[in-house]
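Hi R.,

Here are the chain sequences for the assembly we discussed:
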Amino acid sequence: MDSTVINLKSKLEIYKAMTGGGNLADCPVRDVIQGLNGKWSSLLTAALAEQPYRFGELRRLVPDISQRMLTQTLHELQRDGYVHREVFPTKPPSVEYSLTDLGRSMFGALQHLLQWAELNHDAVREARKEFDTAQA
Amino acid sequence: MDSTVINLKSKLEIYKAMTGGGNLADCPVRDVIQGLNGKWSSLLTAALAEQPYRFGELRRLVPDISQRMLTQTLHELQRDGYVHREVFPTKPPSVEYSLTDLGRSMFGALQHLLQWAELNHDAVREARKEFDTAQA
DNA sequence: CAGGATCCTTCTAGATACTG
DNA sequence: CAGTATCTAGAAGGATCCTG
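And here is the predicted structure of the full complex:
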């Protein structure tokens, strides 16, 4: 079966996983998703999915991220187990960031959404334009 | 080919789509993803993927969302073309929200990530715990 | 019933300066 | 090189009251 085909059963399961139990605050799915909701999380994951990078390389690669947000986002991704941080005791020190197995697995799932976004960006933009002019 | 298998070519394409052109502020992928980064966007999309709901039904379904955020998030999802809003001129009025074709298409891609989150929540939690104790 | 308007709090993210 | 620390503006989100 094509894994892009979604049956109702899995929809219901996801929905239940997100809303069920009356304990939304501790909902597992939302807990994980929340960790990827940052402005830079997806972008940095996508970058590291290509190949490992060092701190400075990532800065140059993503010129409009502040060094504070780069540090912080990498830290969060590392904390959630997606990113491995390896320090090489050179002088001056160099630090390499790479995806863990969990990170690669997660990116495999995230990628569907990124690809969809790339393919359907025009439709979304068009919908926004239409909506905004209709409101005016 | 199993669509969960990622080849390097598509990785690179996504990465380029997210970072290329030196025009990150207008990056299409990030533009679309940003619209789904809200605290409630995924949850409401998942709910509406199951079936259409009325405003009050969604409130009861997601008890910990404020009515303000429910209104606002539905509005954003509608603006991006994911959600259709239909007003029935009854007394008092009733409004039904449902996914558009674009919304269903988007959810098909988002769902991979939600399913991954459900399956791997324990691993993420474990990683966090390990990271936090290692820091202490 | 389905919101709009307001006020307030918290969280996010950017700018800048400094350090091992 | 790879960060930390501090400060601040702005956005996101919550609480409450009001209405067609």
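The two ends of chain B are 45 Å apart (CA to CA). Chain B has two domains: 1-27, 38-135.

Let me know if anything looks off.

Best,
T.
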